[in-house]
Amino acid sequence: MKQCMVAVVFGLFAGIAAGQVDSPSPRKPSSLEALVRQPEARVIWSKEVDHLKSGESRAIVTTLIVEDSVEPARQMRGVRVDLVRPHWKRSIYIDEGSLEQLKKTIDQLTHYVEQDPLPGGTGLAFIGSCECRNNPNLCPLEVDFCYSGCDSGGSLRIFGPNREAIWFPGLMPAHLSKALGGAIDELKIH
Description:
Elements: H1 2-21, H2 31-36, E1 41-54, E2 57-68, E3 75-85, E4 88-95, H3 96-115, E5 125-128, H4 130-134, E6 143-147, E7 155-159, E8 165-169, H5 173-189
Antiparallel strand pairs: 1-2, 2-3, 3-4, 5-6, 6-7, 7-8
Helix pairs in contact: 3-5
């Protein structure tokens, strides 16, 4: 009876969490993205620092410096994350000033996933950052982790600019944190 009650409660919370995570929220473009979209903007330096790959899903992390060709003193630095799967591609731009906090948030998610793994089950259960979900302009890149049964190993999920989800089965938040750490280091030396 206890196991049945736990399964029911777990399924209820998993269903509620899935509904909360998938609810659309508007996202304001970062300052870097706003500059990149200007016709007079040009990328003056870029370097691919890392990529994530799982099945047909890809995330390419590229550091870049963009300048306004009309006003060359106006430059912005940051990261572009290209989310790619067959017949679909979206890019998210992250200002350099937001990278450290974003990495800390993903590191915290990594800690929660590693320290308190949920038991396998038949339903979906997600763990993510509520501050990112509830304040999309605070977090330029929203991620969570899906526990989906005991044999799957879980799945990193990254949301595109319009909250389109791209799944990375078998990958952990630590993989994305490592990529962002490499981008932070690259921007420091360039």
